[in-house]
Amino acid sequence: MNAVCLYLGSSPGARPEYEAAVSELATMIAQRGMTLVYGGGNVGLMGIAANAALAAGGKVIGVIPADIADKEVGHHGLTELQVVDSMHERKMRMAKLADGIIALPGGLGTLEELFEMLTWSQLGFHNKPIGLLNVTGYFDLLLAFLDHMVVERFVKQDHRDLLMVERDPGQLLDRLTSHVPRSVDKWLDMDRT
Q1: With the CA atoms of 105, 190, 32 and 158 taken in that order, what torsion angle do they form, in degrees rounded to the nearest 10?
Q2: pTM of the model
Q3: Please, which residues bridge with residue 164 across strands?
């Protein structure tokens, strides 16, 4: 695994544990020689992740739409900041740059990105490992709802199992990097999606 994409908040959140977990994960990504790919912001958990990886000597690529570069305060100290035309282009570029995905505490955008990648995996568009760092139980209710969706037969268990969940950053990275890709029945060129 050469690059990991992080989905996380442009806010620091309410608890110091969020910042600590993000810093630890980003530092580990850099120390393992992997590139950190993220949304390009310099605020909240996004900025904390980028700065931690850079401080550890890592490579960081940010991808940000031009029309929100000011709102999310684009990070101009990155290895590379790619400015794109739209949110759709941002998500596609981030997905293409990464070999694995990790979602951390965040808001609606974080969830939207996570579920899009899960849906693309379910449909066979990619077979990249997808992880969720459940810092201080932030995602407990969401995970319970996913299990409820399985019980109610709207989500198959093997699709629910696409999401690797850990509370420890090192354990989650270990799981992602040891992921054996499943066969993909209908690999689609993601440019056509």
Answers
A1: 60
A2: 0.92
A3: 131
Helix axis angle, 16-31 relative to 169-177, nearest 10°? 40
Integer Cα distance of 44 and 120 in angstroms = 27
- Cβ count within 10 A of residue 69: 18
DSSP result, 23-59: HHHHHHHHHTTPEEEE--BSSHHHHHHHHHHHHTT--
pLDDT digits (tens, 9 = 90+) for 152-181: 999 999 999 999 999 999 999 999 999 866
- Find, among 139, 117, 140, 141, the residue nearest to 193 by Cα: 117
| Residue range 18-35, pLDDT digits in tens | 999 999 999 999 999 999
Nearest residue to 34 (alpha-carbon basis) of 62, 16, 59, 13: 59
**Cα 47 to Cα 73: distance, rounded to the nearest angstrom:** 9
Is 44:6 a contact under the CB 8 Å cutoff?
no
Copy the structure tokens of residue 131.
């992880």
Paired tokens of 84: 């794109």
